[in-house]
Amino acid sequence: MGLVAVGAGDSLAAASAKGVFGAEAWVTALLWSLAGYAFATAAAAEASSAEPRADAPRSGRHRLARALLPLAALAVFPAACAVDALADGGLDAGTGSYYGAWFLATCVAAFARQAQLLVEHRRAVERERELRADAQRRAAEMEALTGLASTMTEVLEEAPMVERGLDALRRAARTSSSALHLPGEDGTLRLAAATGAWSGECVWAPARAVDGPEADVRGRRHVLRLPLAARGQSLGVVTLVRPQAEGPFDPELGLLELLVGQLGVAVQHARDYREEREAAIRDPLTGLYNRRYFYEAFAKELHRHERYGSGASFVLFDVDDFKSINDTLGHHAGDEVLVRIAQLVLPLIRPSDSFARIGGEEFGLLLPETGQLDALLAAERVRTAISRATILPDRHVTISGGVAAMPQDGSTREELERKADAALYWAKRNGKNLCAVAREAEHVGAPGAAEGMLATLHAVVAGIDSQHLHTRDHSENVAAYAVALGQALGLGEERIVHLRRAAFLHDIGKVAVPEEILHKPAELTAGERTQIELHPEVGGHMLAHAGLADEARWVRHHHERMDGRGYPDGLAGEAIELEARIIFVADAFEAMTSDRPYRRGLPVDVAAEELRRCAGSQFDPRVVDALLELLAGDRLTVLALKSG
Q1: Is residue 440 located within the same domain as residue 476?
Q2: 306-322 b/e with 16+ CB inside 10 Å = b?
Q3: CB 10 within 8 A of CB 33
Q4: Residue of 479, 402, 411, 412 whose CA lies nearest to 442
């Protein structure tokens, strides 16, 4: 309808201008109508394509309308002139002026309309770009918000939550890197997590505390620091870095503050969850794991064994005479003992181990991927550390332990607990301050005279070692060296258990040696040395009487030499059992490296050289080589006793 109105208006205007309604007037009107139609159609085509879709190509009709119709309208002028000239026999000045004026007016109108449409088109395109950019920005903001919200609901651990939160910030702000610094124990900010190219850009963004957003430009990079806080408390600082070409952070500052605020809330929630979880699995007195957590860890190890066949060991500890401590010194002293034991043990175990207070004065130690012998050695480290520590000023506190290994001692928690408890009970009956394995307790059998004798032997050895500062824990150290050598030489676990016992009891015969000779602060005379040399034979008799036949032989012969010049039987070479040769080397190394009343201990390298020099004549070369290899590979802890 608009096109018809334009054509009719132009026709009437042309006819009125002529003043007559003759034939030439109607032809002129028709031509002007075509011109009006052409301009109107071109304008309509331009208007319809002023805001095109970016992905929709323009049609051929629109392109022709915009290009050809204005040209057709301009062709009306010569056509109208030709009609008028044919009708009147010529073109007078008035008529030419009339048509010229209309032609100029038509050109001005056409070009003005085209210019107007071009300006409107450009404005529309720019507006469309702005709308699209705004839509993309809002989409990125929404993605960042939803991503961080998802992280808060899906992740409860602080470390992965922080990493995902920083990644969301990096995407939202188009940064090249992002980082979070948290205060350490001394209050200094320390890097907790980072994403992107932080390792190469950290030099441009040194950590510092801020109370609000802080923007900076360094090294052609925009740096933005935002405080991480929750519940009115500062938690740390978030740092964002992006190239200077990306522009400042001002447009996204509101969003980034919102995201960092959400991240602060998420971090605080993660810490609250961790504290609540820790409270649920920790013993409130000692801070150790409680029975509930320990049994959960136990169940996981059992499942791992069922699925992969992996082994594990369980050690049950009990404080010796704990009831007496409570009765005589009060429950406060008993609590102090439990707390100190926890503090002493935790540095001795691996991160993968679980140490828990499972009731009263009982503690449990779960050792994944650990066999019976290694578990026994770990238990011995715990027992020795507690025995050597001054836990109470006027009372010597000790602990006993029982070891059960999976699968040889059982494949259920109940079986392992029962076996470990039996071994613990055996250690208690045999003098306390001991650790025993389940098989050891079963081997000895039911309580009897022999077991009572064994308890006495352990007590005697402890008494001999404790009589002088220079010999404290000597037998324990020799036993530790002997076990390490037995492992290096490929002895089986059962033999090493017996070897350990023999090494611990190797000096039991010194009970028959006068104390003034044992602790003489000078070198011994020939007669005194003869008395000292009686102790292997005496010790062998004592162990045989206790029913320990193997241990009795090894103790009797632990001073026999490879060249046959040893004592008491003058055995030589392979006639001396390997276990006795191992104890001989372990005893000699411990004696050489430890202080004595009449001399200082030798340096480890000097002692090793002395063993090497005497290998073949005094010591078994194979055992000496094993010890030297352990020392060279830093696989042997030297337990030399020093006087100060």
Answers
A1: no
A2: eeeeebbbbbbbbbbbb
A3: yes
A4: 402
Q: What is the pLDDT of residues 288-342, one digit of tens each?
A: 999 999 999 999 999 998 888 888 999 999 999 999 999 999 999 999 999 999 9
Domain stops at, among 225, 252, 281: 281
Quote the CA–CA distance of 458 and 502 in Å, as a whole number.
11
DSSP state of 548: -
In the chain, what percentage of residues exceed pLDDT 70?
73
In eight-state DSSP terms, residue 524 is: P
Pairing mode of beta strands 233-243, 221-230: antiparallel
Structural domain containing residue 100: 2-129
Q: How far apart are CA 349 and CA 628, in angstroms?
A: 26
184 within some domain: yes
Domain count, the chain: 4
Residue pair 349/355 in contact (Cβ under 8 Å)? The answer is yes
Q: pLDDT tens, 424-463?
A: 998 888 778 888 888 766 655 444 445 555 555 665 666 5
Q: What does the block give as tokens for 499?
A: 């070897």
Is 440 domain-assigned?
yes
Q: How far is it, in rounded angstroms, from Cα 451 to Cα 130?
A: 92
Say how many residues make up the chain: 644
Judge contact between 372 and 313, C-beta under 8 A: yes
> Is 262 in the same domain as 336?
no
Q: Do 300 and 235 share a domain, yes or no? A: no
| Prediction pTM value | 0.59
Between the alpha carbon of residue 179 and those of residues 166, 174, 211, 212, the distances in Å are 7, 14, 17, 16
Whether residues 276 and 289 share a domain: the answer is no
State which amino acid sits at residue 604: V
601 and 482 assigned to the same domain: yes
Closest CA to 277 of 264, 292, 263: 292
CA dist 355 and 365 (Å) reads 5
Which residues have CB under 8 Å from 25's CB, separation 6+? 14, 15, 18
206 and 292 in one domain?
Answer: no
How much is the mean pLDDT over the chain? 80
Shared domain check, 597 and 500? yes
Residues 437 and 299 in one domain: yes
Contacts from 10-18 at CB under 8 Å and sequence distance 24+?
10/35, 10/36, 11/36, 14/80, 17/98, 17/102
Please provide the distance, in angstroms rounded to a whole number, between the alpha carbons at the two ends of the chain: 115
